Amino acid sequence: MRGISADGGVITIQGNKIFENWFWGITLKTRTTGNVQNNEVFSNKCGGIRVGTNYSARILIDSNTIRDHPGPALHTEVLRPETKRLLKDMSIQSKIQEGMPQDKVTLYISPPMLTDRNIIRKNGVGKLLKTNPLEICANCHSKGDLLKCTKCRKTQYCGKACQKQHWNKHKRICKIISGESSVVIKMKETKTSAGLTDATSFCIRIFDPSLKGIGEGIPPDPDSTQKFVVKVQAGNEARLYDPEAMISLYDQTVQLDIWLVSPTLYHIVMECGTLGANQFTSKKVYFWANYEKKGEVLRIHIDDFPPTPTW
């Protein structure tokens, strides 16, 4: 489900086929010295290779084929200023305890070495399409005369060749959406973000600076049945594929900001979602939603998608 993941030590990853994992094909982080060679990494649902905050080791990526990902072939963690300060503070404290003067402490950040012998093709950037996904071919993203899947009657293809090629990806979600057009959420069964303090929630819940308009706009009215857009996020590298895991749902204003369990929404986000803004391992999908019963119920529509927001 997670491909190959290493957190510390010296590791060689060589001669493998790594494919169809729910997150990244290969994840290397913290103090991992890695030699990644002659692997075929393809069709993983977040991206090819992710290198986290690897601040005291060296990683070589050589002679691999990295292809057919919705996200990037290689994602390296960009350290924010506050993270750099934290790491340096930790390093200073450690060195002072060892008797080294503070002015002699340095912080070493090691980017991976990517050779020109890697074959990298047909990888994305982890961004949502600007077109309603129900109005394009699910496989090649072309427009025109489209044929609907005969089972779910929602996903469309430009022809039988694309449908056949896409079936392994579509079959999991096809059964889920075949008989449903919406998911009903009882608000009393949800939790607020303020009530969650675990590390998994924190990783998913960070607002990236690239999100434009977050926290702005008019909050949805619980007394109204008018539709509005919500973002649903799921997934974390620390867990296996878990439909019973808590997922995050919020609107642009973040006045509606809840956590809930919904296997249907979880499946849709993990199967159809794109990378969260920080490109760790969370995935997101935007849905139409509306309140019912004076705000006691929130209905999420899964048979249509809104235009792609910037938040």
From TrEMBL:
GO molecular function: zinc ion binding
Coiled coil: none
Keywords from the named record: Metal-binding, Zinc, Zinc-finger
Segments forming domain MYND-type: 137-174
PROSITE patterns found in the cross-reference section: ZF_MYND_1, ZF_MYND_2
Pfam families listed in its UniProt record: Beta_helix, zf-MYND
Gene3D superfamilies: 6.10.140.2220, Single-stranded right-handed beta-helix, Pectin lyase-like (2.160.20.10)
Domain of life of the source: Eukaryota
InterPro entries: Beta_helix, Para_beta_helix_rpt-2, Pectin_lyas_fold, Pectin_lyase_fold/virulence, Znf_MYND
Protein known as: MYND-type domain-containing protein
Species annotation: Owenia fusiformis (Polychaete worm)
